[in-house]
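Cast an eye over this sequence plus tokens and explain the fold to me:
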Amino acid sequence: MIVSLYRDDLNSQLNGIQVSEIRQFDEVASSIPDILKLTLGEPDFNVPTHVQLAAKKAIDNNFSHYTTNAGIPELRQAAANFQNQKYGLHYQANNVITTVGASEAIAAALTAILNPGDGVLIPAPIYSAYSPLIALNHGVEVRINTRTNNFVLTPELVETAVQAHPELQFKAIVLNYPNNPTGITYRKNELEKLIAVFQKYHLWVISDEIYSELTYGEQHTSIATLIPEQTILISGLSKSHAMTGWRLGFIFADVALIEQIKKVHQYLVTSATSIVQKAGVEALTNGADDGLKMAKEYVQRRDYVYREMTSMGFEIARPDGAFYIFAKIPAEFNQDSMAFCQDLAHKNHLALIPGHAFGTEGEGYVRLSYAADMARLHEAMKRLRAYMTDSTNKN
């Protein structure tokens, strides 16, 4: 018999943290028979064959021991070259840390820069991982509600948020673009307007650009091209190469800062998986454009779902990247986002994510992931339309 030694004097910040509502809802929905899930942010494509073969070769060659903490030099240089060639940056291998996914990259960056009580600005609605990491590092999160401006952050919104909290020393702002959950992204002229206020308040910009290869229309612009000395750039291969389970991410920053973040990274994970690092080299060199092939299909899916859902009465800020639709629930449905998604899942066997999972700023919305083939999306729209046209579901 095991006698519990659990005590309640753990890190007090854990008391305000819950398991992600995205994961919670996905698990509940999974138990419903015949459920069609458009919930998780995971590409439905397979990892490119040539990347798989690179991993197998690494296994055959017994490349199974510790690597250097920041990752093998050839991968770090490949990651730097990828950013330089794609987005006009100027990184070298010593500007890069290889991490266990973008999530660990964000955790390591926040841990490295935050002191207790430091303020961190968060444009919202936003993916749920950032807030708990800020809290665990005893930072103070201040959210900026962007839904008043069609989910686009402006210098005025940043200025207002800072001025509303004179008691705080603001250390950083987290940008995620293309954005999860809205799919909104920023063009160069929009970023140029933002950097003035970021420089005014000496903010580190933790720029999560994991969806950079999945932009539709204009070429992605990294804010690191404008203020490299203030930017901590986060990227990875989960979205561009469908390698979610392989857990390979990157931090790019000034060399002096990289040396400090590397300390955190070392004591969190030691190093990323050796075999996956070899696969990463292949993905970033011979597979540099693999994500663009997926993006072409995502555009067709986006256009179809956007057209169908707007015809059903949803209001949607048309996404320019990632693979999400963030849709406002029509007013005649007198339910909050959780109740709406639960009802839809149980009655019509379609699972979407409640907007509340992305903060109170997302209440009244639902997020749909169109990382699914067209056959599944056609069926999903059929089920959604049946629910939306059933008068018993309305006020």
